[in-house]
Amino acid sequence: MKTLSILGSTGSIGTQALKVVRKLNRDGCAMFRIAALAAHHNVELLEEQAREFRPEIVAVYDSEAAADLRVRLRDMSVRVLKGMEGLCEAAALEGAEVTLNSVVGMVGLRPTLAAIKAKKTIALANKETLVAGGALVMGLAREKGVDILPVDSEHSAIFQCLQGNNKKELRRILLTASGGPFFGRTREELEGVTPQQALNHPNWSMGAKVTIDSATMMNKGLEVMEASWLFDVPPEKIQVVVHRESIVHSMVEYSDRSVIAQMGAPDMCLPIQYALTYPRRLPSPVEELDLFKVQSLHFYPPDLNAFPCLDIAIRALKRGGLAPAAVNGANEEAVGAFLEGKLPFMRIPELCARAMERQPDCPADSVEAVLGADMAAREFVRSVISQEKI
């Protein structure tokens, strides 16, 4: 039996992780025990999860929501924690072996570091942890001897393709992208898109922020950064390939020009389960891949003119230091404003690029430095929106 702490349990990845846990516990002999659950503010769902899985602690980032949950769970012997302190305690809980971090945004950085310090195996679905704090996170993981297992479908695919091979013989990573809901549109055609249109992803069911990032292709830029840190590969060895069917989740090419691909139905339960059960492979709730039904697969180069966020993220990675933290912070703020109807879709890449240009060249050598760059970028975006009254 493995004992899990799940951060972001009410979100898209968290709920699918609990689906995997239910399935494996039902089919096997209680493979998982949930020791901690954590969420931002969805107390209704978090209460249901707490009553079903009976964790030792439940953490809620929002203080008012935590107070509400404490009342709701007063008949249970579960500790209800709040704020960042609560998330970090849930991440590092004694007795838990694996911490799944699936919270969205920079709020995931400190809990990831707390879990690594406590020597937990990390199942990582929080991109921002490595995007903004890659040097800190990977350095601490090496120091503590902690494994970081990727949960993103693309990074899980790369991780699987690397198994049993010599990393030194890696020639390049082929990172696939669905192209999102606006594949094939010109920059001019993207000017007036609405949040409702951008949230209509053709293949994947994800949270709102990640879905918008897919629509701008910032998601793929963040994944290039993440892959660079996870697999210790320079950006020049990572090629983004638009693959509309989302059947090939990513590929790895070796020095002999052999290309190994990981394929499967577009279902996040597969990479989630692989991270939770690694190195074992067990029956999963994912549907069988029927290649006769698929029939054909298509691949295209990304359109950097229509989707400049991808290029902005890669430039930030090459520049290094705090540039990625600035881009990430600006993007989070701009996406939030777009979803609220305060910012046009194509202003998102513009503000990300401007935030990166404003960021001085400084090393990302502390949590304070990373969070400072993140906050400065967010404040810049807010000030532009306020001054221009977009």
TrEMBL record:
GO molecular function: 1-deoxy-D-xylulose-5-phosphate reductoisomerase activity; manganese ion binding; NADPH binding
InterPro entries assigned to the protein according to its UniProt record, in alphabetical order: DXP_reductoisomerase, DXP_reductoisomerase_C, DXP_reductoisomerase_N, DXPR_C, DXPR_C_sf, NAD(P)-bd_dom_sf
Catalytic reaction annotation: 2-C-methyl-D-erythritol 4-phosphate + NADP(+) = 1-deoxy-D-xylulose 5-phosphate + NADPH + H(+)
1-deoxy-D-xylulose 5-phosphate reductoisomerase N-terminal domain: residues covered: 4-134
Residues that hold 1-deoxy-D-xylulose 5-phosphate according to the record: 127, 153-154, 178, 201, 214, 219-220, 223
Pathway: Isoprenoid biosynthesis; isopentenyl diphosphate biosynthesis via DXP pathway; isopentenyl diphosphate from 1-deoxy-D-xylulose 5-phosphate: step 1/6
One Pfam entry name: DXPR_C
EC code: 1.1.1.267
Enzyme category, top tier: oxidoreductase
Transmembrane segments: none
1-deoxy-D-xylulose 5-phosphate reductoisomerase C-terminal domain mapped to chain residues: 148-231
Protein family according to the UniProt entry: Belongs to the DXR family.
Protein name: 1-deoxy-D-xylulose 5-phosphate reductoisomerase
Provenance organism: Acutalibacter muris
